[in-house]
């Protein structure tokens, strides 16, 4: 199987690296179109002759074309890419906000899969939600899902409109976690812990909580109850969250992210 990657930024590099490490795709079968050619030591083992600044017939010879350009650059990129794309190819987009219909129109293709990966893909623990055009068959979906899963886990949704909420949940989600962690670190420092001590306290707390949840059959509310004994310290903290309607603030923030995703795709 041959793959072309259009754009060699963070996501382009992440997918290329994951394909190669998983031995799903050979490095010599990956072609890259990028504005800036990398130094050989940054090529991930992909032959330097496979890197080009402009699309060429290597694109036509590929089974899958991955669009990893910036969304705002897509229309310009499509002008030079279109002549090398065929109806038999699968086009996989990792661009935020660009609809399946727009990709089909600008590239004159039928088989389009639109995905929303998140930051965790960089370490093989990503979460990707993807949807596909009606012309994409089960075999195509199976192949692409296997490719995506080299970067973590994935969920297929028939309704493309769910890609925007997925952006608000898992796409933006890592930043929410980092925000909460940073607030806890700052609070720990206010208590008198050093910066390094506060980071260890918070990092290990999150790591332990995530691993505990992943190995437990208990619901989130049941896990909260296990930590929050009646009249204890945790219950006191949770009451502050409830009084300030933290759950509604989180929901409102995620709705704002969803609205922005819709605006960007308009």
UniProtKB/TrEMBL annotation:
<keyword id="KW-0963">Cytoplasm</keyword>
<comment type="similarity">
    <text>Belongs to the pyrroline-5-carboxylate reductase family.</text>
</comment>
<dbReference type="GO" id="GO:0004735">
    <property type="term" value="F:pyrroline-5-carboxylate reductase activity"/>
</dbReference>
<feature type="domain" description="Pyrroline-5-carboxylate reductase dimerisation">
    <location>
        <begin position="160"/>
        <end position="264"/>
    </location>
</feature>
<dbReference type="InterPro" id="IPR008927">
    <property type="entry name" value="6-PGluconate_DH-like_C_sf"/>
</dbReference>
<comment type="function">
    <text>Catalyzes the reduction of 1-pyrroline-5-carboxylate (PCA) to L-proline.</text>
</comment>
<protein>
    <recommendedName>
        <fullName>Pyrroline-5-carboxylate reductase</fullName>
        <ecNumber>1.5.1.2</ecNumber>
    </recommendedName>
</protein>
<dbReference type="InterPro" id="IPR000304">
    <property type="entry name" value="Pyrroline-COOH_reductase"/>
</dbReference>
<keyword id="KW-0560">Oxidoreductase</keyword>
<dbReference type="Pfam" id="PF03807">
    <property type="entry name" value="F420_oxidored"/>
</dbReference>
<keyword id="KW-0521">NADP</keyword>
<keyword id="KW-0028">Amino-acid biosynthesis</keyword>
<dbReference type="InterPro" id="IPR036291">
    <property type="entry name" value="NAD(P)-bd_dom_sf"/>
</dbReference>
<dbReference type="InterPro" id="IPR029036">
    <property type="entry name" value="P5CR_dimer"/>
</dbReference>
<dbReference type="InterPro" id="IPR028939">
    <property type="entry name" value="P5C_Rdtase_cat_N"/>
</dbReference>
<keyword id="KW-0641">Proline biosynthesis</keyword>
<feature type="domain" description="Pyrroline-5-carboxylate reductase catalytic N-terminal">
    <location>
        <begin position="2"/>
        <end position="97"/>
    </location>
</feature>
<comment type="pathway">
    <text>Amino-acid biosynthesis; L-proline biosynthesis; L-proline from L-glutamate 5-semialdehyde: step 1/1.</text>
</comment>
<dbReference type="Pfam" id="PF14748">
    <property type="entry name" value="P5CR_dimer"/>
</dbReference>
